Fold:
Amino acid sequence: MTHSKKNMDARSGAGDRLNALGTQLLEVHIWLREMLEDLRDSVDDYFDGKGIPPRDLRAHCLSFCTALTRHHTGEEKGAFPAIAEEFPELRKVLSDLRTDHNQLDWLMGSLRKLLESLPDSPDPATATKVREEVGALSAIMQTHFIYEEKKLISVLNSMDVPEWRENRPDFLMTDDDQDGPEAFAR
Structure:
């Protein structure tokens, strides 16, 4: 085998392995989108009088918020510094994504407060507020994910971060990657 053929094969193997990081990010975003859709369905069930107790709705919200927060915290502590170091031209993009994270945190806090005060029976006056909060959260999250995917998938695919191959980083985890409820809340 020629020297250049060996290099091509090595790069191809590395590319296949690294490509998984971008794919994993997409998978996590799909999973988080599905979690939010499930939360929206639970909100609708509650306000449509289908018997879902407020505590179950709050628990569902907590699960979603914990997962999204873990993802974003993992990005900010692990992925973004690594990307900024290797691709300094993306620092503005990373700053914009951090701003989105702050906005999403605020929206999740507002939603949690609304859900904490739900009466046992659906309250039509509260339904509009809760649905607006879920809608705003969904809109910002969707826009954020699309922007992040457009700007970072190819970057992640080109990066070689050995510790990410050895131990899946928090920003690429779903609940399937967790050992149990205590691990989920990391």
